[in-house]
Design brief:
Blueprint: H1 3-14, E1 37-39, E2 64-66, E3 70-72, E4 81-86, E5 96-98, E6 104-110, E7 113-114, E8 121-123, E9 131-137, E10 153-158
Antiparallel strand pairs: 1-3, 2-9, 4-8, 4-10, 5-6, 6-7, 6-9
């Protein structure tokens, strides 16, 4: 636009010959919190491998199921349910929880596939995944006889 038409438009608007419409906007809604979930009623889930032969640790032997139940409150909103296993991963396997024994981890499986620690996955409450665990050792590690433990948190939450 050149300067003259701009000035003319400004002059017309300033004397009230330009009209416009306006309306107020109102926004409202309701904040909802997802229903609470519990796993095994908040009790500790224990998996005991018993006596494990050092030379038999191959990621197959000693595989055990992790029995658990998830209960969540009901709600009408379509929340997405997530499940994760949170813990310290070994340096050699992102799906294995570090034990108190260097070079030894506990690999977690969901539906027969390695379950990457600290990574939530979508699940369905009516058919949660099957979880299994198995001892694994770091390639080249030399293990000595010892008791071992590992700790992780199984977490179910809505997003």
């Amino acid at each position: 636009m050149t300067r003259w038409p701009q000035r003319a438009l400004l002059a017309l608007c300033s004397i009230g010959l330009c009209t416009g419409a306006s309306a107020n906007l109102t926004f409202s809604g309701t904040l909802n919190e997802p229903p609470p979930c519990t796993i095994d009623a908040g009790n500790t889930i224990e998996v005991d491998f018993g006596d494990v032969g050092i030379r038999r640790i191959d990621g197959v032997q000693y595989r055990r199921g992790v029995g658990y139940t998830i209960n969540c409150g009901t709600d009408t909103l379509p929340w997405e349910l997530k499940l994760s296993v949170n813990g310290t991963a070994t340096a050699f396997d992102g799906s294995a929880v570090q034990t108190n024994v260097p070079g030894l981890g506990i690999r977690v499986f969901q539906n027969n596939a390695p379950f990457l620690l600290n990574t939530p996955m979508d699940i369905t409450l009516s058919s949660p995944p099957t979880l299994e665990v198995v001892p694994v050792k770091q390639p080249g590690a030399v293990l000595t006889p010892a008791s071992f433990t590992a700790v992780a948190t199984l977490l179910a939450e809505y997003e």
